[in-house]
TrEMBL record:
<dbReference type="InterPro" id="IPR000760">
    <property type="entry name" value="Inositol_monophosphatase-like"/>
</dbReference>
<dbReference type="InterPro" id="IPR020550">
    <property type="entry name" value="Inositol_monophosphatase_CS"/>
</dbReference>
<dbReference type="Pfam" id="PF00459">
    <property type="entry name" value="Inositol_P"/>
</dbReference>
<keyword id="KW-0479">Metal-binding</keyword>
<keyword id="KW-0378">Hydrolase</keyword>
<dbReference type="InterPro" id="IPR020583">
    <property type="entry name" value="Inositol_monoP_metal-BS"/>
</dbReference>
<protein>
    <recommendedName>
        <fullName>inositol-phosphate phosphatase</fullName>
        <ecNumber>3.1.3.25</ecNumber>
    </recommendedName>
</protein>
<keyword id="KW-0460">Magnesium</keyword>
Amino acid sequence: MIEDSETIEEFLAHGMSDVEEAVRKAAATEIMPRFRQLAAHEVDEKTGPHDLVTDADRKAEEYLTAALGALLPGSVVVGEEAVHANPLTYEAIRGEAPVWIVDPVDGTRQFVHGNPGFCTLVALAQGGKVLASWTYAPALDLFATAIRGGGAALDGAPLRSGSPAPDRPLEVATSHPDFTTDEEKRALLGLRTEGVRTRPCGSAGLEYLAIARGELDATGFSWEAAWDHAAGLLLVEEAGGAHLTRAGEPFRITGDNVLPFTAARDAATAQRVAALLADGA
């Protein structure tokens, strides 16, 4: 827990493990007991058949909201399910109070279908800047962390994204067509060119982890929801990567970005992909 006289940076110097423990407990208590055990009444659609929510999402977010708020008094929690219930909750990301940005189950479709490719995402931000992040894939037993200016790590080992090999196509994960406008579809078509190989994205959090590990070269994403991106973007940055919108600007968790945008293993790759997205539009 943060002390009254502590800054957030001082809290993070000793509190990263406390947050990790809260994330692990939320998964152990509310998510994994429901993995491959969901009943039909525990799964609902939100905006359509590709936008699902389960009891695991709701219960894990409730757990994390209580636990993270207790660790950092005066902070605000912005969770995916809370915003779905009350969209005005999202405005806290643009405020000055410390804010926890939470996606309890990123990759709910995978979770519902018994696929282990899902994760829990938590980021701590203030004034629109992400200060720390936690990415936990409980079914894969992977835990990644990042702290601004302090590097990224996977299960305690430093992460470095490196650069793509110059003699092979870029591997790029892109948004599902159901979540793109006509203009964004045209922009993403710019990636259908020689030297680039695209595939549909899975869990956004795990795609960011793949970039930080040097297993994926870049993304082409067309939505802004901060809970999907905040944790992973910092993880990629601290592993040596970069992110840019189609307008050539870094992605802002506060919104108003020119989409699609990319996160990539290094700055040169981010610039290349952003230029292709701009050309496609």
